[in-house]
Write a structure and sequence with these properties.
heterodimer; A: mainly alpha; 6 helices; 73% helix; B: mainly alpha
Chain lengths: 136, 139
C-alpha cells in the first residue's frame, strides 16, 4: 500500500484510540502525561496508565504476528545524543504539559488555543533543529 | 474494565504508530526536514487522527459519563505562559535530534531495545527532575 494511505490509516487508528480512551476511561490520551504520572511522585491511578504503556510497548510484537517481521526502526546509535535528547524531551513535555499526542491529537480537535500554540511551537522547533543538524 | 480498556487502547495506539510509520525515527526526521527531501506523508497521520478525534469527542459529549469511570477529564487550563512555550521549544529540539516523541519511543522499545533504553531513561530522568523542581516551587 502507498505510504500516504498507510499514514492515513495509522492516523485514523491513533484518533480512534484517543476517542476510546475518553469514552471508556474519561482520560486525555497524552503519552507524556500518562508516563509522567507513572514516575515519582506516582499517581494513585497508575494501574491503567501502566497497562496503556504495556499495550504500546507490545504493539510491534503484535503487528509482527500479522506481517511476519518487526517494523523498521532506524535510529542513531550515539548514546550521548540519545540521552541528552531524551532529557530535553522529558523536561520539555513536563514544562509544556504535553507532547504530540496530548497537544496535537487531543488538543487541536478540542480547539484549545493552548494546544495550538504548543503544537505550532514544537513542530517549528523540531523542524529548525533538523535543519540545523542536516543543512548547516 | 478500566485497566483492560487501557491495555487494548494502548495496543491500538501503538499499532497506529507502526502502520503509519511514526515508529521509525528516520521517517519522522524526513518529515521534519521541510527544507530537504521532504517526506510529507506523516502529515496524514496527524490529519487523520485529528479528524477522528474532532468528531469522536463531540459524539462522546452527548454521554453523561465514561463507560468505566465517573467523569470526563477534559483539560481546563486555557492560559498561555512562558512555561508552555519554553517547554514546547525544548520538546521540539529533543524530537528533532532523535526523531522520536514519547509515544513512538515506547512503541520502538522492543525493536531497538538498547537505543530506546537510553532515550527513555533520559525522558524519565528529565520528567522526574522537572517534577521535583515544580514541587519545590509550589511549596
Amino acid at each position: 500500500m502507498h505510504e500516504y494511505v498507510l499514514a492515513l490509516i495509522g492516523g485514523l487508528m491513533i484518533g480512534t484510540a484517543a476517542v476510546l480512551l475518553m469514552a471508556a476511561n474519561g482520560q486525555i490520551m497524552g503519552v507524556s502525561g500518562i508516563v509522567k504520572r507513572l514516575l515519582p511522585p506516582v499517581a494513585t491511578d497508575w494501574h491503567w496508565r501502566a497497562l496503556f504503556v504495556l499495550g504500546v510497548v507490545l504493539s510491534p510484537l503484535i503487528a509482527s504476528i500479522f506481517t511476519g517481521e518487526l517494523p523498521v526502526v532506524t535510529i542513531t546509535n550515539n548514546p550521548f545524543v540519545l540521552l541528552i535528547a531524551g532529557l530535553i524531551v522529558g523536561v520539555g513535555t513536563v514544562m509544556g504539559n504535553g507532547c504530540t499526542s496530548g497537544h496535537g491529537v487531543c488538543g487541536l480537535p478540542r480547539l484549545s488555543i493552548r494546544s495550538m500554540v504548543a503544537t505550532g511551537t514544537f513542530m517549528l522547533s523540531a523542524a529548525i533543529t533538523v535543519f540545523l543538524v542536516r543543512h548547516l | 474494565m478500566k485497566n483492560l480498556s487501557a491495555l487494548f487502547i494502548g495496543l491500538l495506539f501503538g499499532l497506529g504508530l507502526v502502520v503509519s510509520g511514526m515508529i521509525n525515527p528516520a521517517k519522522v526526521l524526513s518529515f521534519l526536514d521541510i527544507f530537504g527531501a521532504w517526506d510529507a506523508s506523516l502529515a496524514f497521520v496527524m490529519g487523520g487522527a485529528v479528524v477522528v478525534t474532532f468528531f469522536g469527542y463531540r459524539w462522546i459529549g452527548r454521554a453523561g459519563k465514561p463507560w468505566f469511570d465517573i467523569k470526563f477529564r477534559f483539560p481546563t487550563t486555557t492560559y498561555i505562559d512562558n512555561k508552555l512555550i519554553i517547554g514546547a521549544v525544548l520538546f521540539g529540539i529533543g524530537w528533532g535530534l532523535v526523531g522520536l516523541c514519547p509515544g513512538p519511543a515506547l512503541a520502538a522499545f522492543t525493536v531497538e531495545p538498547w537505543a530506546l533504553l537510553v532515550f527513555l531513561a533520559g525522558i524519565a530522568g528529565g520528567m522526574i527532575l522537572t517534577n521535583m523542581f515544580n514541587t519545590k516551587q509550589s511549596l
